[in-house]
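for ur thesis appendix - 3-hydroxyacyl-[acyl-carrier-protein] dehydratase FabZ. copy paste whatever u need, i formatted it the way the template wanted (i think)
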Amino acid sequence: MAGEVETISARGPMDVRRVMAALPHRYPMLLIDRVVSLVPNQSIHAIKAVSVNEPFFQGHFPTRPIMPGVLIVEAMAQAAGVLAVESMNLADSGKLVYFMSIDGAKFRSPVEPGCLLDLHVEVTQNRGAICKFAGKAMLGDKLAAEAQFVAMISDPPKD
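the 3d part is after this line
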């Protein structure tokens, strides 16, 4: 049905293996652990379990580890990428999602080791190969970060 939420129980688990089928990112840059729900062409709810073993915590900051804001935005962007790939059935197409701009990024609460980062991304405009998104990163009911971004779906560059 159009607009029906596709949850883990309705569609089978969208665990990290399915996320990796949708995204080209790999360790240490893969920042999505699983997808909780996805409404094609509308929204996605994804999870990032933040571990003290993340490599960025070695230098940001050794005495008080905090996830860098740019990586929180990257996690939201990756969730948007999964949404785009799944919505347009692009997993085996070879096409990539390239981010073109980020606007209005705001960081409200520090994300520390042990946190479960809930990533909520909505499509705000879709013009074929170019989409606009609004994302929020939540720590429970507390806003950690938010941003708007634009992405383009394209073929990878030729060698």
